[in-house]
Amino acid sequence: MSVSGITNIALSGMRAQTTRIGAIASNVANSSTPDYGRLNTSLTSTEPGVRATVEATPSDVDLATELTDMLQAEQSYKANAVVFETGADLWEMLMSIKRD
After folding, report:
1. Exposure of 23 by Cβ count < 10 A (0-12 exposed, 13-18 middle, 19+ buried)?
2. Crossing angle, helix 63-99 and helix 3-29, to 10 degrees?
3. β-pair partners for 52
4. In the chain, where are the structural domains located?
Protein backbone atom coordinates (compact mmCIF):
# COMPACT_ATOMS: atom_id res chain seq x y z
CA MET A 1 0.00 0.00 0.00
CA SER A 2 1.24 3.46 -0.87
CA VAL A 3 1.59 6.38 1.52
CA SER A 4 -1.09 8.29 -0.38
CA GLY A 5 -3.40 5.27 -0.04
CA ILE A 6 -2.90 5.26 3.72
CA THR A 7 -3.67 8.96 4.00
CA ASN A 8 -6.76 8.59 1.77
CA ILE A 9 -8.11 5.78 3.97
CA ALA A 10 -7.52 7.85 7.10
CA LEU A 11 -9.21 10.85 5.46
CA SER A 12 -12.27 8.76 4.58
CA GLY A 13 -12.40 7.60 8.20
CA MET A 14 -12.32 11.19 9.45
CA ARG A 15 -15.11 12.15 7.01
CA ALA A 16 -17.22 9.19 8.15
CA GLN A 17 -16.81 10.13 11.81
CA THR A 18 -17.70 13.75 11.01
CA THR A 19 -20.93 12.52 9.41
CA ARG A 20 -21.57 10.36 12.46
CA ILE A 21 -21.05 13.30 14.85
CA GLY A 22 -23.48 15.38 12.77
CA ALA A 23 -26.16 12.71 13.15
CA ILE A 24 -25.51 12.49 16.89
CA ALA A 25 -25.78 16.28 17.22
CA SER A 26 -29.10 16.20 15.39
CA ASN A 27 -30.36 13.43 17.68
CA VAL A 28 -29.41 15.37 20.82
CA ALA A 29 -30.88 18.62 19.50
CA ASN A 30 -34.17 16.93 18.61
CA SER A 31 -34.40 14.53 21.54
CA SER A 32 -37.54 16.21 22.91
CA THR A 33 -39.18 16.78 19.51
CA PRO A 34 -42.40 14.74 19.19
CA ASP A 35 -42.32 11.97 16.56
CA TYR A 36 -38.61 12.53 15.85
CA GLY A 37 -36.94 9.43 14.41
CA ARG A 38 -33.41 8.82 15.66
CA LEU A 39 -30.74 9.15 12.97
CA ASN A 40 -28.65 6.01 12.86
CA THR A 41 -25.24 6.02 11.19
CA SER A 42 -23.85 2.86 9.65
CA LEU A 43 -20.25 2.55 8.50
CA THR A 44 -19.50 0.54 5.39
CA SER A 45 -16.10 -0.61 4.23
CA THR A 46 -15.35 0.51 0.68
CA GLU A 47 -12.34 0.06 -1.57
CA PRO A 48 -10.77 3.46 -0.81
CA GLY A 49 -11.70 3.40 2.90
CA VAL A 50 -14.98 3.73 4.76
CA ARG A 51 -18.32 5.41 4.08
CA ALA A 52 -20.98 6.60 6.54
CA THR A 53 -24.67 6.29 5.72
CA VAL A 54 -27.30 8.04 7.83
CA GLU A 55 -30.90 6.88 7.97
CA ALA A 56 -33.83 7.69 10.25
CA THR A 57 -35.18 4.93 12.47
CA PRO A 58 -38.51 4.87 14.31
CA SER A 59 -36.82 4.62 17.71
CA ASP A 60 -36.61 7.23 20.46
CA VAL A 61 -33.42 9.10 21.30
CA ASP A 62 -31.55 7.88 24.39
CA LEU A 63 -29.10 10.53 25.54
CA ALA A 64 -26.81 7.96 27.21
CA THR A 65 -26.51 6.09 23.90
CA GLU A 66 -25.81 9.33 22.07
CA LEU A 67 -23.07 10.25 24.55
CA THR A 68 -21.47 6.83 24.19
CA ASP A 69 -21.63 7.04 20.39
CA MET A 70 -20.14 10.54 20.48
CA LEU A 71 -17.18 9.38 22.58
CA GLN A 72 -16.59 6.45 20.25
CA ALA A 73 -16.75 8.72 17.18
CA GLU A 74 -14.32 11.14 18.82
CA GLN A 75 -11.78 8.40 19.53
CA SER A 76 -12.15 6.99 16.01
CA TYR A 77 -11.64 10.44 14.50
CA LYS A 78 -8.50 10.97 16.61
CA ALA A 79 -7.10 7.58 15.59
CA ASN A 80 -7.63 8.37 11.91
CA ALA A 81 -6.07 11.82 12.39
CA VAL A 82 -2.94 10.22 13.88
CA VAL A 83 -2.68 7.85 10.91
CA PHE A 84 -3.15 10.77 8.51
CA GLU A 85 -0.44 12.83 10.24
CA THR A 86 1.94 9.87 10.25
CA GLY A 87 1.33 9.33 6.53
CA ALA A 88 1.95 13.02 5.87
CA ASP A 89 5.20 12.84 7.87
CA LEU A 90 6.30 9.78 5.88
CA TRP A 91 5.47 11.56 2.63
CA GLU A 92 7.50 14.59 3.70
CA MET A 93 10.44 12.37 4.65
CA LEU A 94 10.32 10.57 1.30
CA MET A 95 10.27 13.87 -0.55
CA SER A 96 13.30 15.15 1.41
CA ILE A 97 15.19 11.95 0.61
CA LYS A 98 14.28 12.31 -3.06
CA ARG A 99 15.57 15.92 -3.12
CA ASP A 100 18.91 14.97 -1.53
Report:
1. buried
2. 160
3. 43
4. 3-99
pLDDT at 5: 85
E strands, 1-100, in order = 39-46, 49-56
- Taking only the tens place, the pLDDT of each residue in 21-44 is 999 999 999 999 999 999 999 999
Nearest one of 21, 23, 9 to 81, comparing CA atoms: 9
Q: For residues 77 and 17, what is the distance between their CA atoms, to the nearest angstrom?
A: 6
CB-based contact 76:13 (threshold 8 Å): yes
pLDDT for 95 equals 83
Residues in the chain: 100
